[in-house]
Design a protein that fits this description.
The protein is an alpha/beta fold and about 425 residues long. The chain is about 45% helix and about 15% strand. α13 packs across α14.
């Protein structure tokens, strides 16, 4: 098939590449000329070319959080549709990939039918993405499921044709109405956020009781109704998707009158928002004194390993909070120092692991890079004044560090002298 992908950002680029990989002819369109220049040395197809070329159009533009901080800004989605509409002169299917509020596909379908020469021949399908950052291509070519909300049998046939190579490999296709497809994406990310907040709340209980959250997690994770995946205590969730999606799903629940669901979701948000303060409390308990005046090295700036994305990074939030409390903070990350520096220029940064420890009194492990797990506690000991490490990811082998003379405290695990 001939396919257009409108929006060549973090979502559109891997989707376009994957569509080409499975055998389709693909044209990509974006309003950011510099982005297009980087992609193909200046050949920027227009929406008119995309409309003439493609049988199906994927809409993969961004949906940042709105000014209210609680809902999606769908301006780019509707802007792209308005720009595309005058060029849609024959029946076609527009497939939305962006994460949106329930009801968006209905409104978009009405807009395109009104503005397009093809009128009711233009149909809108919602096909949310479930990409993990750092795994976009693999998750597009080998997803655990494909979800599509379709308005008609004709639209479903088009979807089955475009995804035929993936379906032939046994990827399950879930065909729903558009509203259900829109809610599936929000529900998935909201549940992941709640699962993380749940185990972090339990980690606080373990800290207070002298229990071990790691053993607790392994035990309850064996229950198939609970599952082990995503059930990891830590400094909270971050990134460009999960916080935004949980907020927007909470707002949707409230707008739909599901007040109990909104209350439950908001509680999960509050747990996540409390993580930097909880981390500071653990750090000060380990030190036996306030953070004011302490020389701290934070290992980690990205919100998770495998990316340089620092949006809503728990690691940076903790570093910034300690800085506000009067600590001298140096941040080290194997990949995210440049992006972190742009977001938090008031912190000190070091791209070298050993160099980041100069005159430090405390190390805080805040991102789960293998780089930190593999660090040698014996060789690092002379570089740190008091040989104290607080592991917020339960990443390192605490016994090995203690044998090398370190005081180690891990999140939700008993203190050991």
């Amino acid at each position: 098939m001939r396919v257009s992908v409108i929006g060549c950002g973090h979502l559109g680029i891997p989707h376009a590449a994957a569509m080409a990989e499975i055998g389709h002819e693909v044209i990509g369109v974006d309003l950011d000329q510099a982005k297009i220049d980087r992609l193909n040395a200046g050949e920027c197809p227009s929406l008119a070319e995309a409309a003439e070329f493609a049988d199906i159009h994927f809409l993969a533009v961004g949906t940042p959080i709105d000014a209210d901080g609680r809902s999606y800004d769908t301006g780019q989605v509707f802007g792209a549709a308005r720009a595309l509409a005058p060029h849609l002169t024959r029946p076609t299917v527009v497939i939305g990939k962006s994460t949106v509020t329930v009801g968006t596909s209905r409104d978009l379908g009405s807009l395109l039918a009104r503005l397009s020469p093809a009128g009711e021949g233009v149909e809108v399908v919602w096909n949310p993405e479930f990409l993990r950052e750092g795994h976009a291509i693999d998750d597009t070519l080998r997803p655990d499921r494909i979800v599509v909300g379709v308005p008609s049998a004709r639209a479903e046939d088009a979807v089955r044709e475009v995804y035929a190579p993936l379906l032939a490999n046994g990827i399950p296709l879930f065909v729903t109405d558009p509203a259900t497809a829109e809610l599936i994406k929000g529900a998935a990310n909201a549940y992941l956020g709640m699962k993380i907040s749940f185990i972090n709340g339990v980690a606080d209980m373990c800290t207070a009781a002298g229990a071990d959250v790691q053993q607790l997690t392994e035990a309850i994770g064996l229950d198939p109704r609970i599952g082990r995946g995503g059930l990891n205590a830590g400094p909270g969730y971050g990134g460009g998707c999960l916080p935004k999606d949980v907020r927007a799903f909470t707002a949707s629940a409230r707008a739909l009158g599901a007040t109990e669901a909104a209350t439950m979701l908001r509680a999960a948000e509050e747990v996540n928002e409390s993580r930097p303060t909880a981390a500071l409390r653990l750090i000060e308990q380990t030190l036996g004194r306030p953070a004011d005046g302490v020389r701290v090295t934070v290992w980690g700036a990205s919100f998770k390993a495998g990316t340089d994305d620092v949006r809503e990074s728990p690691a940076l939030a903790i570093a910034a909070l300690m800085h506000q409390r009067g600590a001298t903070v140096t941040v080290h990350d194997p990949h995210a120092v440049p992006t972190a520096l742009r977001r938090h220029p008031g912190l000190d940064y070091c791209e070298d692991l050993e160099g980041s420890l100069a005159a430090a009194e405390l190390i805080v492990v805040a991102t789960e890079w293998p780089h930190f797990r593999e660090a040698d506690p014996k060789s690092l000991a002379p570089l740190v004044a008091d040989q104290v490490l607080v592991d917020l990811r339960n990443l390192i082998d605490a016994d090995a560090w203690r044998m090398a003379g370190w005081t180690v405290r891990q999140l939700g695990r008993p203190a050991q002298e």
